[in-house]
Amino acid sequence: MKISLNPDSVTYLLSAAAAFLIFDSSAALLLDNLTGYNSLFVHKLVKLFYVDLELNIPAFFSMLLLLIASLLLAVITILKRQENADYVQQWAILSGGFLFMAFDEVIAVHERLIEPMRAVLGEQHLGVLYFAWVVPVIPLVLFLAFFFLKFLWSLPEKTKLSFLLAASLYVGGAIGCELLESRHCEIYGKENLLYMIQTTIEESFEMGGVIVFIWALLTYIAERYEEVRFRFDNAENSL
Prior knowledge:
Layout: H1 7-34, H2 40-49, H3 57-83, H4 88-107, H5 114-121, H6 134-147, H7 149-154, H8 157-188, H9 193-225, E1 231-232, E2 237-238
Helix pairs in contact: 1-2, 1-3, 1-9, 3-4, 3-9, 8-9
């Protein structure tokens, strides 16, 4: 069986699905607001489609995006290892990192850092650090940026720029928007339309960043390898 994947077609499909979910989330939130938050049916729609909640359709879609990225990175890792190429470790670490991020998207491991970090920083007047999980994560992101810098610069120009764009969108959403939301949430809480609009923007940036990254990976594989074949038999699985 032969499966052909066109990077642009895959990107259009994923982008359309993301836009559909963002629209559904926004529509459900607006309808909930217009009905005075009193409609049980609308509230169920919010739980099903609101992009900032866990264990709903957008959360599983975001997990799927990250899993696709992890799988593509794993394929590249295997191909690079077969070539005895440089930076195999970096490709493998990226694959593992996206796999962790996929599960974190659903079970929100990072949010478990909030309370311990608030205890360290103080419980009140935290402002942009109200969602205190960002405190240990920002240094980690800076370390990873430094760690992958040489690897990034070794990539083809188009791949490098695409990776940078994807990272800017994702980190800008996950951390940048989160810092802005923190201050608002500390003062006004989460049960207001403005906060929900902010989280919708954040999730849109995150989805967009991962979709750009998937496009970059598919394009890299298509341009460098053209065709990747998998063979399965009783003796071994080989790429």
